[in-house]
Amino acid sequence: MSDPEAKCAARLMEDKKQPPHVVIFPLPLQGHVNSMLQLAELLALSGLKVTFLNSPHNHNHLPQFADVPARFTKFPGFEFRTVPDGLADDHPRTGRFLLEMLDGMIVKTKPSLRDLLVDINPSVDCIIGDGILGYLLDIGEELEIPVIQFRTISACCLWVYYRIPDLIGAGEIPVGGNEDMDRLIKMVEGMENFLRGRDLPSFCRAKNLEVEGTRVQTFAQETRRSATAHALILNTFEDLEGPILSHIRTKFPKIYTIGPLHAHLRTKLSEKNLVSSDSLNGIREVDRSCISWLDQQAMHSVVYVSFGSIAGLTREQLLEVWYGLVKSKVRFLWVVRPDSVLGHWGDEDVPVELMEGTEERGYLVDWAPQEEVLDHWAVGGFLTHSGWNSTLESVVAGVPMICWPQFADQHVNSRYVSEVWKIGLDMKDFCDRHVVEKLVNDLMEEKREEFVGSARTMAKLAKESVSFGGSSYCNLDSLIEDIKLMSLKKS
Ligand code: UDP
């Protein structure tokens, strides 16, 4: 046997002794990293070797603010590696840098990732890639590594994305201008009776399409391409999105619904008698003083307000929300990220009445331990931007929502929250101080009973889905079997 052949055989023998090796690569944004780290931990708990790819920026921030190093050292095979995120080192990475990042990734990330996958030892059995990064399929094809795609959005939004080329072809989008935004959109099967123009993803609006027209096509094409991946993982559960999943399954041959992932992780950790604390995957410093503040409030008396990790508010929007909260007279805990206010903003800009109202009934933080906040007995409602992680976290906690979607999938999610699941109210396109005041009062008092019953039922279903024998629990087992089979086939 020649030297290279001997080396190759030795490596194969070595590989066979190893558990399957999965490389996980999220889009390096908070919401994506959060759910894909939860998936990584679930796979590591089941004995797979996991390599998690971070951007250097996130890699530096995670150990500072999250309990990530402590959580992952218990898995000997677990490794973090870095690949560039496509942005310059000194880029502030605040605001809406997604499109810039996606462009940069093709040039910088794709070649680095390819090189890493060629060199990595042990060799890779499966790539679990963020479904928004279609180029992972090219790399997988070239290197003959199966790719499973993970979409961090809801199934309902995925289905709308899938239908976008048809909507464009039929002239149903763009929406906006002088037209009736309440017009029903008839071409998305399963949503014919409730999906309105205003509920389509934000980039379907005429003013956005002018700027992002080609990009919309690209997103839609990437979604269709996902059907060619080995399989698709969705952070959802059958009882929540079953009807729409049955439509999606006609186009995507193999789907694993294994969510809500944060709740699933809690189940698996407690099965193994490991500490089942909330997973802190944040790349920002958490202000835990809000938990002490919540401890002093009455049961279900507080509305928690957060618009996620990316959304930005103009000065006017911020003031409208703030006035609405203060005028509602309901107690509020509000996450105002320092980078969330667009344009200049300082303490001197806050009207005295807002300062006084906030001192009396409110509490502001830069970043909260959200899962823990939503689980706190003092929290009775969530004013949210309807990001998918936030929506699932609220569903599991049984907390009804007021939705004020900002962009992307959030417009579809909020329609489902209000019209399909009936676990909250939708405020899209109508956010002023009077509306905020009214909806907060409706959710927390007037109509509370209406929503609390359905929110509790959905929370129970969510927990059952990730318990032994539940749909997500069984689907995770099947996913792991699938990955093991890939590894066996390779060897
Ligand atoms: N989050 C948090 N603390 C905060 C605000 C948000 O931990 O103060 C977390 C939240 O729990 C969720 C994620 O950040 O897991 C936001 O993801 P989501 O999909 O809701 O929205 P995005 O930030 O992607 O718009």
UniProtKB/TrEMBL annotation:
Gene3D superfamilies: Glycogen Phosphorylase B
Organism for this UniProt entry: Rubroshorea leprosula
Pfam families: UDPGT
Family, as annotated: Belongs to the UDP-glycosyltransferase family.
InterPro entries: UDP_glucos_trans, UDP_glycos_trans_CS
Keywords: Glycosyltransferase, Transferase
Protein name: Glycosyltransferase
Record flagged with keyword Metal-binding: no
Class of this enzyme: transferase
GO molecular function: quercetin 3-O-glucosyltransferase activity; quercetin 7-O-glucosyltransferase activity
Catalytic activity, EC: 2.4.1.-
SUPFAM superfamilies in the cross-refs: UDP-Glycosyltransferase/glycogen phosphorylase
